[in-house]
Amino acid sequence: MAAIGNRGTVTEAAGFDAAADAQKLRGAMKGTGTDEAAIIDVLAHRTIAQRQRIKEAYKQTVGKELADDLSSELSGNFKSVVLGLLMLAPVYDAYELRNAMKGAGTEEACLTDILASRSNNEIKTINEVYKREYGKTLEDAVSGDTSGMFKRVLVSLLTAGRDEGDKVDDALAVQDAKDIYEAGEARWGTDEVKFLTVLCVRNRNHLLRVFQEYQKISGKDIEASIKSEMSGSLEDVFLAIVKCIKNKPAFFAERLYKSMKGLGTTDSVLIRIMVARAEIDMLDIKSQFQKMYGKTLHSFIKGDTSGDYRKILLELCGGE
Description:
Elements: H1 18-29, H2 36-43, H3 48-62, H4 66-73, H5 76-85, H6 89-101, H7 108-117, H8 120-134, H9 138-145, H10 148-158, H11 170-183, H12 192-199, H13 204-218, H14 222-229, H15 232-260, H16 267-277, H17 282-293, H18 297-304, H19 307-317
């Protein structure tokens, strides 16, 4: 029943009673009007594992799926958050990836955010869930919906083949840094495959060393080089990989900031990160956000959203 991470704002509710929660949700939807506050009170303060138990209890006592009932009662962004909270983590990731590729156009940012930041095990599970839920492999879906080098990077990430050990091979780190330098800064045009081979395959500690060596050789940060050598979705995915290797909570903090700054809000990004990270590392994301932007994530959400949507996001954010 524990949370899936230990740095989340959502933690296990004490004295948890799935049947009582199911009844409370039932009561929130009975009669005219919906008691959104009661829905927030339950779902924003239970772990994913506890929410699965509530779903079972609801089905037993009401004879209907909780998600179906909530779906018919709620609307807009608030509904998207609530339905996301009811899903297991890999199911939610698969669902988001599917939505990003449905219909005309592709939300490349979603593919990048998820695939660049998940562990091998998480990606393997997402692959299994996707196949089971949607009847085709995620690799086939991605291959049919993206192209060129961006597609190749995503397919490489989907193989979940990154070395997850912690050994650093110094000689290889120097060679990797040289290879990347020679594939980009040191030549006319860019050999993106070299970037892929290093960035999608090596372990985190090794890559941190590669980035240090790269700085020595080129006098530039690896991120600056990627920005000058590439563009569009390919630039985005390589930058996301580098940022997740360096500091994953900072990567998500930046994504949240960009989803809310300026005119309008990219709600799909805001919802996806708040739902997916709430019980994993939201505490770290919040502290990075404050450090990077001098304002709290809480204050940004408060100023950028409204109504029940704002209320549930603020609960997931866990106070100032």
